[in-house]
């Protein structure tokens, strides 16, 4: 288990999942990459399965070192690396028929002057998750101001009008859960209010998983007047507020460790209507 | 049918003398060549499609690399392949893969905690490099513990290697398919002539290192830096698609290699020849 540093206290969901897995005879260890002095040139896989929970650069690099040497990883390393890159996920999700905002990548904000005159846009960093560093702009001046503080290149998205609450969707295999939360940069730390999963939300969630090759993942969805729109996807989320999350995660890890589940590398076509299929045989 | 080749370039159009020459040679050979500049374009991510038989990823910018990632996801054939290019941007993964492939590399550590560096200095000087850097920017040699606090470090992972003082010149090595070229260069180079360096014919030891690098990273076109210290070679840096500065015949060699890759992909063969594998 490669976990992250923030927050400093281990997630209770993870601790409970560890206990369930230990009860089934697995040896479970976890480590925080940032606290250790690592020798990447000597690092070799010495566990049957690695769980990549952390989203930091260093953890992803170490996961890359292990994966290059054939380590089994959940979610698979290339799929996690792809999911971190908003640029690539935008293309994959659109191809998979997932409703997503129109998305552009650029370094010069003037290229979108015409677009921002027509409708509000969202500026976000191209690597990252959890809604950090996002701003909404309404005109060319606002876009320039956001561009000055943004890390280039910028990802700019069509702003999707919503009810003021984000739908946080958590998925374990083919089991989909949703909680509703007011939107903010720190909302990842807040437990939401569980809500029923509508068929359209479920379909968008499973298509996203198939397109990105993820089995444990989360989505941010805005319920627009035209239906749910996926605005963000991330691997191995916190599952805060999901009932029995630990047991479901443990079951999924168990099945993955036994080779019962495969998560192919992302490609255009996976999860698309009429092709590719979902990556979850259960 | 005409082969179509697109170059993903970095920086302003018109500043790429070598690559314009490569493009002209490919055009003369019958290919349809286009130069793309993702950094100065509005890239509509929702509709990226593979419109060329082969993409040549010269750009090292975040946008260029991400564009290649989106094209790769859309099934495009890219030289170097996108996963290889992405790996070469990550010093941690690259050094581990080279070491595992039997390439002589210095001992390597990563950490976010500078407190760990003191212990490393007990066995000799170290060199601290930014996690994602290139062209030697931000590379600092640390000899004594007192210098650690003076390091101007960005937050994030530190990439640390044992420092092996060079016996003489730096060896800039270039692989273009089966051809291995070398340029000896003073470091740091001060004049234009010093930057150009002096081309030399690599011996079998350096050619073997080039083959080991190619096999480890899975690329046909790349560059790497070798330092000899006490007569022992160490690969201290590797770059996925370098500038080939000072390499005689670089345009002809690159045009031939890229043209061969384009022929391979139109036949449905892998984009890399895998000469060394």
Give a quick summary of the entry:
With 282 residues, chain A is of the alpha+beta class. Chain A has helices spanning 12-23, 57-68, 77-84, 86-95, 113-118, 140-149, 199-212, 245-257; strands at 2-3, 31-32, 50-51, 73-74, 103-106, 121-125, 135-137, 154-158, 165-172, 175-182, 193-195, 216-224, 227-235.
Q: Mind explaining what this structure looks like?
A:
Chain A is α+β, with helices and mostly antiparallel strands. Among the domains of chain A are: 103-158, Dna Ligase, domain 1, CATH 3.30.1490; 162-240, ATP-grasp fold, B domain (D-amino Acid Aminotransferase, Chain A, domain 1), CATH 3.30.470. Chain A contains eight helices and 13 strands. Chain A has helices at 12-23, 57-68, 77-84, 86-95, 113-118, 140-149, 199-212, 245-257, and strands at 2-3, 31-32, 50-51, 73-74, 103-106, 121-125, 135-137, 154-158, 165-172, 175-182, 193-195, 216-224, 227-235. In chain A, helix 1 (12-23) links the parallel strand 1 (2-3) and strand 2 (31-32). Chain B is of the alpha+beta class. Chain B has three domains: 4-82 and 249-266, Rossmann fold (3-Layer(aba) Sandwich); 91-103 and 166-239, D-amino Acid Aminotransferase, Chain A, domain 1, CATH 3.30.470.20; 109-162, 2-Layer Sandwich (Dna Ligase, domain 1). Helix content of chain B is 30%, strand content 25%. Chain B has eight helices and 14 strands. Chains A and B meet through helix 2, helix 3, helix 4 and strand 5 of A and strand 3, helix 2, helix 3, helix 4 and strand 6 of B.
Annotate the secondary structure layout.
The complex is a heterodimer of chains A (282) and B (277).
Chain A lengths: L1 E2 L8 H12 L7 E2 L17 E2 L5 H12 L4 E2 L2 H8 L1 H10 L7 E4 L6 H6 L2 E5 L9 E3 L2 H10 L4 E5 L6 E8 L2 E8 L10 E3 L3 H14 L3 E9 L2 E9 L9 H13 L25
Parallel strand pairs in A: 1-2, 3-4
Antiparallel strand pairs in A: 5-8, 6-7, 6-8, 9-10, 9-12, 10-11, 12-13
Helix pairs in contact in A: 1-8, 2-3, 4-7
Chain B lengths: L3 E5 L8 H12 L3 E5 L6 E2 L9 E4 L4 H12 L4 E2 L2 H7 L2 H10 L7 E4 L3 H7 L4 E5 L9 E3 L15 E5 L7 E7 L2 E7 L6 H5 L1 E3 L3 H14 L3 E9 L2 E8 L10 H17 L11
Parallel strand pairs in B: 1-2, 1-4, 4-5
Antiparallel strand pairs in B: 6-9, 7-8, 7-9, 10-11, 10-13, 11-12, 13-14
């Amino acid at each position: 288990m490669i976990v992250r540093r923030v927050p400093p206290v281990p997630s209770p969901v993870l601790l409970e999942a560890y206990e369930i897995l230990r009860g089934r005879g697995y040896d479970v260890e976890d480590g925080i990459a940032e606290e250790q002095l690592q020798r990447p040139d000597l690092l070799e896989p010495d566990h049957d399965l690695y769980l990549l929970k952390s989203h930091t650069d260093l953890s992803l690099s170490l996961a890359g070192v292990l994966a290059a040497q054939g380590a089994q990883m959940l979610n698979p390393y290339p799929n996690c690396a792809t999911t971190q890159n908003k640029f690539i996920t935008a293309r994959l999700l659109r191809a998979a028929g997932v409703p997503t905002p129109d998305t552009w990548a650029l370094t010069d904000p003037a290229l979108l002057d015409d677009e921002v005159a027509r409708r509000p846009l969202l500026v976000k960093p191209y690597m990252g998750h959890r809604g950090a560093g996002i701003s909404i702009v309404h005109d060319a001046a606002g876009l320039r101001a956001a561009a000055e503080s943004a890390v280039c290149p910028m990802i700019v998205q069509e702003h999707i009008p919503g009810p003021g609450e984000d739908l946080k969707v958590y998925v374990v295999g083919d089991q989909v859960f949703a909680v509703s939360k007011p939107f903010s940069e720190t909302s990842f730390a807040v437990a939401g209010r569980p809500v029923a999963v509508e068929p359209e939300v479920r379909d968008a969630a499973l298509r996203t998983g198939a397109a990105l090759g993820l089995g444990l993942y989360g989505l941010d969805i805005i319920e627009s007047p035209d239906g749910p729109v996926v605005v963000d996807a991330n691997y191995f989320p916190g599952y805060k507020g999901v009932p029995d999350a630990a047991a479901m995660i443990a079951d999924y890890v168990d099945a993955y460790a036994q080779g019962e589940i495969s998560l192919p590398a992302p490609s255009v076509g996976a999860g698309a209507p009429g092709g590719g299929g979902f990556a979850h045989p259960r | 049918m005409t082969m179509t080749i697109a170059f993903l370039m970095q920086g302003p159009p018109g500043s790429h003398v070598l690559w314009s020459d490569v493009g002209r040679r490919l055009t003369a050979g019958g290919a349809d060549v286009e130069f793309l500049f993702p950094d100065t374009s509005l890239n509509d991510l929702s509709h990226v499609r593979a419109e060329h038989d082969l993409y040549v990823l010269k750009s090292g910018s975040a946008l260029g690399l991400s564009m290649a990632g989106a094209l790769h996801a859309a099934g495009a054939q890219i030289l170097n392949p996108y996963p290889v290019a992405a790996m070469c941007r990550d010093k941690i993964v690259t050094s581990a893969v080279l070491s595992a492939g039997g390439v002589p590399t210095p001992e390597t550590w990563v950490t976010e905690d500078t407190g760990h560096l003191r212990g490393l200095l007990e066995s000799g000087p170290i060199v601290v490099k930014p996690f994602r850097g290139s062209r030697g920017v931000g590379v600092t040699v640390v000899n004594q513990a007192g210098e650690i606090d003076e390091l101007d470090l960005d937050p994030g992972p530190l990439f640390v290697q044992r420092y092996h003082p060079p016996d003489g010149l730096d060896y800039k090595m270039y692989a273009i398919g089966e051809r291995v070229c070398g340029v000896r260069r003073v470091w740091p180079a001060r004049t234009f002539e010093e930057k150009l360096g002096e081309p030399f014919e690599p011996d079998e030891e350096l050619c073997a290192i080039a083959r080991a690098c190619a096999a480890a990273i899975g690329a046909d076109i790349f560059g790497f830096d070798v330092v000899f210290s006490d007569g022992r070679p160490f690969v201290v840096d590797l770059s996925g698609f370098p500038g080939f500065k000072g390499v005689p015949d670089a345009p002809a060699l690159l045009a031939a290699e890229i043209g061969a890759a384009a022929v391979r992909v139109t036949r449905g063969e892998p984009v890399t020849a895998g000469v060394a594998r």
